[in-house]
User: What shape does this take?
Amino acid sequence: MIKLTPRAQASAKWGYLSPVLAVFLTLIAATVLFWGLGKDPQLALYTFFISPIENWYGITELLVVAIPILLCAYGLALCYRASIWNIGAEGQLLLGAVVATTMALQFVDSNSFWAMPLVLLAGMAGGMLCSGISAFLNLRLNCNETLVTIMMNYIALNTLLWAVYGPLKDPSGYNFPESALFGDSTLLPILFEGTRLHFGLLLVILALVIVWVFMSKTFLGFQIKVLGLDKPAARMAGFKEKKLAAMVFLVSGALAGLAGAVIVTGSTGQLIPAISPGYGYSAIIVAFLGRLHPVGITLAGLLIALIFMGGEMSQMVLQLPRAITGILQGLILFFLLSCDVMIRYRIVFTVKLPGFTAAAKH
Amino acid sequence: MSNVKRLAMQGITKEYPGCKANDQVFLDIEHGEIHALLGENGAGKSTLMKMLYGVVKPDAGSIIWNGSPVSIDQPAIARGLGIGMVFQHFSLFETLTVTENIALVLGDQAGHLKTLAHRIKATSERYGMPLDPERRISSLSTGERQRVEIVRCLLLDLQLLILDEPTSVLTPQEVQDLFKTLKKLTKEGCSVLFISHKLHEVTELCDSATILRAGKVTGHCIPKNETSESIARMMVGDDIAISNECKRALGGDVFASIEGLSTQSIGQFDIALKNINLQVKQGEIVGIAGIAGNGQEELLKALSGEEIHRNSQAIKFAGQFVDQLSPLKRRRLGLAFVPEDRLGRGAVPDLDLCDNALLTSFDSGLVQNGFLKKSKIVQLADKIIKQYKVKTPGNHTSAASLSGGNLQKFIVGREIDQEPKFLLMSHPTWGVDIGAQVAIHEAILQLRDRGCAILIISEDLDELYKISDRLGAICDGSVSDFLVPEVLPLVKLGQWMAGDFGPSTEPKTATTAATKTVEIGATSHD
Assistant: This one.
């Protein structure tokens, strides 16, 4: 008989092992899945996980995909550390993109140095607006933050669609639902000639360092950790719960909004309806897979970005459906949550002795 | 039959990861005796009882019941043998009646509810602890709830009753009633195993005692032939001071003053505070006695700022109204706070001792420009650990893995180290072993002598009598007068705890009040 018995203390080792095991189990499940779909598993795994990053260009493309995911995930990790279940990074990203586009369209013909920073700040403001509304509903009106942030995702998506079909539509764009192309002053510089890898990578590194220092070295980071682990203790110590909660909402909104601004100024160069294939949702998985630690998140973000690319690749090469990306991401989260049981429990194999059952009746 | 023991536990050993809870423990209980099991916290008393009651399985050793070896794998088997246990925390459903609660535990043995109710009434009256079977648990006092648990055991063919710290929730009068019941039980041949921290109760009640220290039996004694001090010595070993003389202090200027504090109850189980008047002077310890759930929690939260009552102007620290101030601002006016729950409020279970030192000491130079000064934090944690003799593998151990007493020493140390002007403490030594108790009391008294105003809310009357400079009681959201312990007889404090505040100064009225409670007690027994 297999029994789960609680550990005396949470296992630090399994905290690190669990995500690795989850990824491994996902690979096994993927193999079975490909085999079941009638594809050669070896070829499929190769197409999915190796071929996208076989060359330098592939690696830069991986980074381009990872940039918005990571920006969102760092912010979400802050929320989750405070036990605030913000699912709204997607909406914050989209609204950030809309506001950034509005700003960028003011500078189409300008060469001002300030155009770019203003657009990025506008994106952050858009994200903060979106998460700020959620924060208000949650902290002032006691609405459940999970529900509120999910609903804000739909509001943001429809705001985006309204904008590209309406006020932000390019007047000379043959009625396509797209904004005008941005001017050069509001396009992020490319880091390496011949690739699409843009300045956003440096923003990610900056965010990584700031969030890391914030979490581990500052008193505010400590307060957030206490708030997430033990609310009564935070109250007893006199921490300002609501202000702390509002802060993490706004910071994560700003980072997700920045991600939206980086997509339109770095990758697409205009606002289009499909700027995000669910980066904000994937960031949730990334935050947990990375154990809410900035470095872990960075690694997890690269893996999830690889699944996005592998999904595209397998659509083209293997004619697999688009849903495969979502399925694999879901499997990772599923296996991660399952493996996390090992952090607090250990497996004990027990042998049933004959005669024991009779005594234990009732 | 007469030389066969009721119970013999032989060579019981139980090991948990990282600690040997019981090591070759032998425990004998005779027919019809009250046997005390004594020991500090973490000595292994609870583990031993859990094995006897079938909650935990021993790694080695055997249990001999009425002369034959038994294997107790489940509480149901223990109950079948005639072993009943009353835990420290009752397992009763508030919304059900006494009969329904008992029927739930007895299962098939309960029979029809009507006959059961009849049996409950008959049994409870026979043993002098009347119960109305139709009343809901939510309307019962703590003492009455304990009766429900005991009667539940008595309905079975009871041969051994285990009581885990039964008196910690009772008023002095209720304790005497309980003792009478227990003595009656033993006259009928039932054995009682009595676990307690309160040594004077043990010397008063018990026929024999087994003493555990660090999982091993360190002695047996006949409590009547011993003194509290000599038993305490056996429990803690030779190297710890077990008593300290406390000098009373008069105090200086008033630091904290509460005038006419009243609150509304929000939740169903909240107690509304009613016109509370109370002053705590610098260099003085004020003690508040009371049975749990009489407004202590509400009073503490009102003082700490965890609950802020809008439009209230009743609490002053050093002459300044603080009613609308956040907990942080009150801390900055000199407040420090040791809450009742150590894990989950006084300390964060998953964080290590360094982080838990930082939790409330952040104003003591541990934070500079918003950044943590790690080395200072470690220094502070080490200082508290050393100064208050906190037993821990190191400063990076999580708070959850410390024993209750050790964590309490750490929390008390952390608050005292901030040199507060007003220290608020709830149950400062609840469940803490004697050695740690003495250390904590010592630290509190020294802080008082340095001019701190201290307010202690506790259920432990020994403690309050020992260290309070003025002592009173809280009942149903009201507080009594406060008197110097020397002129406040225990009986009177008991009446105050029961809500009979009466006039306080004349001894004549005190006696009439005493007879009054007896009458009230008698009428409620109908």
